[in-house]
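A common beginner's mistake is to predict each chain separately and then try to dock the pieces by hand. The better habit, illustrated here, is to supply every component at once so that their relative placement is modeled jointly.
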Amino acid sequence: MRSQSGLVTGLLFSVVTVYAISFASLNATMTSTVVSGMLWVALLFSSSASLPRIFLSEEELGTGDLLRLTARPHAIFWGKSLFNCFQCVVTGTILSVLYLGFTSKAIAVPWLFAVSLVAGCLSLAGAVTLCGAIASQAANRAVLSAAIAVPLLLPLVSLGVSAVRVSLGLHVRHEDVGSLTEGIGAAIGLVGYAGVTLATGPWIYSAVWRS
Amino acid sequence: MDLLGGVEKLKTGLRALFVLLMGVATVWSFFVPDAEAFQKPGMARIFLWHFPCPMLAVFLLLYGAWCSFRIFQRVKLSPFELGPETDHDEKTMWDLRSVASMELGYLFCILTMASGILFSEIQWGAWWSWDPRQTSFLIVLLIYAAYFALRFAYTDPGKRAAYSGAYSLFTILPSLFLFFVFPRLPYIKSLSLHPTDSILQGQIKGQYAEAVILILVLVLILTIYLFKMRIRAGLLEINLEKNIGQLENLGVNTTPTGVVRPVSVSKPD
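With all components supplied together, the output reads:
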């Protein structure tokens, strides 16, 4: 919380992305698949650009060693990942409201949309926080943390796109987005991904810490 | 002495047998009857050499993660596992195994993509069809590349082993999803052109299946051999660095001597 740059950067990036996508698709009819894909791409790049900073800033400000002397690894990881979870959910909510507003897209299954968005944001935050911690002491850490996080997040994005696509276009004519069962399956996958990421993250972080 | 000589002769014999079997398998792969399950059966023989590549890429990624897990576990190795070069600690050995596994896995992933793209062009009419299997292996290729990008970013061997090991462990969940879940999702499966569980469902049988299994076994043996060679090369590299460090501590100049070249000097007028 010493610097609000992460939150501001994430929000700014999201708003600019939403505006750019909406501007690029002016007067075009966007299907639910395209809208959900664009939404998740914006979330992916927004989170991978801003969330790793929580660990990188410790090394840049020279407070990383002090943190290692005074705190336990589990406490540090949980503190930082919870802050990132909050930041990602706030950013995701603002981005979704803006994006759906710009594209005039209605939500057919609101609860499925909300569950997949929150679970997706928690997974993104958990994974990107750990990648930030892993890259924090490398030479080119800012670029590296995003580069190593994105391949791990692509499966998550595919699940997110499946769930949001169904939640947006389930009852829309001329759109084959799959059944509600498939959407629920993808949302369960997102919840599982979030659970596993947040459960294994502290263990991996403390193992690195001891080394 | 006779016993050592006998072992060497046996090893040479086994190597010769392996090369012979490789040759036989290569020739046989051109003569086995076509497998009718493919869109163009006569042009599907690349499958025989394509099939072992993704299997080994998957296995080596997971084995690399297991070796990384052992780095953090700090389990004492038995003297048998350490081999003759006993002055290396267990962490270094597991790191070497992990990186050897990841390097070979990366190689097999590239071979999977290359042979898969060729197969795609011949069977489906496009170099890249956005098939779920093709797409998921491209992401696996990116995961492998990210592992090496991270590894090259750390110069300190201890940090390099720990951080790249942590990343390797963290790749298990997305990798398992990409290999086993993603291609079988109902919506994704309906879009796929790629054959799934062909051997289990009996679509590939008879001589074709025998050739597939023979080539898989041979490529597996080659992989084990390359893996052991990579470990040996890694140990030699570490020994070399240690010896240079010891020589420097003893005051021996290890830097190469300067080269003296003749220079022409113009005569004064």
